Structure formats: structure tokens, C-alpha cells
Amino acid sequence: MTLRSAFLTLFLITLSGLGGLVASWLHTPLPYMLGSLVTSGVIALFWSDKIPDGYKFPMKFRLLFMIIIGVMIGTRVTPDVLRALPSYLSSFALLVVFVVAAHGMNYVVFRRLGGYDPTTAFYAGTPGGLMESIAMGEEAGANIAILTIQQFLRIIAVITLVPIGLSIWYGAPVGSASGQSLARVGADLHALPLVFVIGVVGFLIGKAIRLPAAQLTGPLLAAAVVSVTGLIDLPIPQWVINLAQVVIGTSLGMRFVGLKGRTMIKAVGLTVVSVAAMLALGLICALILQPLTGLSLDVLLISFAPGGVTEMALVALSLHANPAIVTLHHILRIILTVLEMGFLSRFLPRTANTDTPNTHEP
N or C: which terminus of the chain carries fewer CB neighbours within 10 A? Predict the structure, then answer.
């Protein structure tokens, strides 16, 4: 990263952090992530000409904060959580049905309503496995620009709508919107170096054994082992958690650089239809499972909401749902999606799609 890029990244994070503060004052759900996402998204959409050509938000920098979030979630894994796993088998089984049904619905939306070619519609419609979908879609000849837009809009729409929808559902602000804290009382900086060490070791192991979303799941599993055994205490201060949300939100918002005009409007419209259908399906699954699992409706809904693993784990933390159980569901969702995508892709015609939408339309 050049010095200029580093200063620009710091400037964007600072502006987005101010957006997070404003969202916090307004008592919005998940304020630091959503506020920073909206702020950086507005910058990317309307002031992209001020951003130097070729600039991309540094993913290695984002990785550090994803590792912190992974460790924090892992500390929530307790012996009680492990003992309760067999009671969630019905939920895991229904998740298989959810993945297949959601992918099928999305294919119809993108193919029939959006008019995308079959390959692009197929990979844009996967209810998980963002990076895997983009990589496999590019190899299969999908329109990579449209595919990327739709996949990121899916995540952004879900992490925006789910906490707001739950606030409306209960008739009052929930989670972070009601002023609840994500951090443990009295947490300071003394354990932060150890958090990084355990997180990085977990990430490297997760990457070596090819865990899905290894930047999150690797640190999560490493911290879970430490937490369950009771060997080490890993408290993380509130301001570190807030900063992690700002960085993740800023990185998502900057994905909108250069995306203007009818292409973006069309993609947003299709996302609304697609995400609404998937959330409705997730709510049906949650209603079915609630009497079988004993879990609350909001935990089940978050577990089936097709956002990114990191982002939905943050939503779970914000709503004080157990993030470990939620994350287990999302890891399984990604694994199932990748397996299903790999199997069904054999029946797709290979597309030599060199069409790229004009993202600078008036």
C-alpha cells in the first residue's frame, strides 16, 4: 500500500466512523457498521471521481478486524453451547432445504425479472459463499461485474434490513439500538496482544485446512478451544469492537465505487425482491423450528438470514443473541451452498460472457 492510499483509507475510515457516531446518536440498529456503510457508500456512489483510479480498500487491513470479531465470537462458545448442539439437528436439516429453495427462487428472480444470462443468474443467486460464487462464476463465464454487485448487495441488504425489521417486530429498539453493550464490563487492553496471537494462529490453521470464511471461522475455533478449556480469558474493549464494525462497514460501502445509472438501480431492485423472498423463507423456517429447538424467533431468523458470516455474527452480537450458534448455522449454509453450487454447475452451459455493463450511465 502506498502512503497516499494509506492516508485515503484512514480518511475514509474517519468519515465513516463519524457516520457511525451519528447513527449511534439516532439509536439505529448496529450503528457503527450501518452508519459507516451508508457513509462510505454515499462517497463511493457520488464522489467516486475524487477517489484515485485503481484504489481499493485494503482487504489485509480489514482482515485484522475480522480476526478480532472471530475471536470475540469464539469466546462465546461455552461447554453449555457444545452440550446443546444435538438439539439443533432439526435446524441444521432444515437449512439444507433453505439453501436449495433460496437458490432456486433467486435464479428465477435474476433470470426472469433481471434478464441475466443463465450462468450469471445462477452464480448471482447463491445464498452464501460470496467469494466462492464470484470465483466459480468468473471461471464459468458469468458477467463478473453484475455477479459481484448482486452478491455484495445481498449482504448489505440483509445486514441492514434484519436489525431494523426486528426492531419493528418488537415495537422497540433492540440490541445496540437500545444502548446495549457488546463488550464485557471492565475489559481493557491487557488481553489485546493475546487476542491477535490466537486470532492469527486460528486464521492460518483455518486457511491451511480450507475452512469456509477462514478469516472468521479460524480465529473463532481457536478462541473457542481456549474458552471451553478455561485456559485464558480474552476480554475485548467496546471501542475495539466499534472500530471493527466501522472498518468492515467502510470496506463494504467502498464496493460501490463507479456503480451508477440504470445498472445500479436495476441491481438494487432485484436485490429487494431476492432478499425479501429469502427472509420470508427464513422466517417460515424459524417459525417451524421455534417449538422444536426452544430457540427464540430472533436467533433462528438471524441464523437463516443469508448475510455474510462476519456481518451476521455482528448482528447476533448486537441483538445479544448467542453468536456461536448463529455462526454455526452460517458456516453450514456456506458449506451447503458451495457443495450445491459445485454439483448443479455441471448442468449449466458454459458461457463466454464478455459483456460488461456500463456502470457510468447517466
Answer: C
> What's the CA gap between 13 and 7, in Å, rounded?
10
Residue 161: count other Cβ atoms within 10 Å of its Cβ: 17
Backbone CA torsion sign across 318, 323, 326, 329: positive
Distance of alpha carbon 139 from alpha carbon 62, whole angstroms = 26
Measured CA to CA, the distance from residue 131 to residue 108 in angstroms comes to: 22
User: What would the pLDDT profile of 194-228 be if each residue is shown by its tens digit?
Assistant: 889 999 999 999 999 888 778 888 898 898 898 88
Buried b (16+ CB within 10 A) or exposed e, 29-40: bbbbbbbbbbbb
Q: Which three cell numbers stand for residue 303?
A: 441464523
Separation of alpha carbons 16 and 31, rounded Å: 11
Query: Global pTM?
Result: 0.73
Concatenating the DSSP letter of every residue in 31-62 gives HHHHHHHHHHHHHHHHSGGGSPTT----HHHH
| CA–CA distances in Å: residue 11 to residues 23, 51, 58, 85, 318 | 19, 11, 13, 44, 26
